[in-house]
Amino acid sequence: MDTIVQFSGERLVATRYGAYNTASGIAIALGNLAVGGLFDVAKRTGTPGWHGRRRPRPGCSAPPL
Fold first, then answer.
1. How far is CA 36 from CA 6, 11, 31, in A?
2. What span, in angstroms and rounded, lies between the C-alpha atoms of 58 and 48?
3. To the nearest 10°, the Cα dihedral for 5, 30, 26, 52?
4. Rounded to whole angstroms, how far apart are CA atoms 12 and 27?
5. What is the number of alpha carbons within 13 Å of residue 27 lying toward its C-beta?
6. 0.90 exceeded by the pTM?
7. How confident is the model over 1-26, as pLDDT tens digits?
8. For 1-65, where are the alpha helices, taking DSSP H only?
9. What is the pLDDT of residues 34-51, one digit of tens each?
10. Residue 18, CA distances (Å) to 24, 25, 30, 43 in order
11. How many angstroms separate the CA atoms of 20 and 54, rounded?
12. What is the DSSP letter of 12?
């Protein structure tokens, strides 16, 4: 977060933080929409997605079903 202060030149720091948080929120929302869309496509095509796996893959935090 020191980077934001450096970029702002110590002026309007709270405004820069607000813009950063807004951009982060938008990016997270778009990522969630993209992943949700992939799950919908997998469900429609009958592809066994993440939910259909019986054993967890490396890096997956989900417990086995």
1. 36, 39, 8
2. 17
3. -80
4. 23
5. 6
6. no
7. 677 778 778 788 888 899 999 999 99
8. 2-8, 13-45
9. 988 988 888 888 776 555
10. 10, 10, 18, 37
11. 40
12. S
Residue owning tokens 């929302």 = 29
Residues 6+ apart with CB under 8 A from 4: 13, 16, 17, 20
State the amino acid at position 52 in one-letter form.
G
Asked if 53 and 46 touch (Cβ cutoff 8 Å), the reply is no
Cα torsion 13, 14, 19, 21 to 10°: value is: 120
CB atoms within 10 A of CB 12: 11
In contact, 49 and 35? CB cutoff 8 Å: no
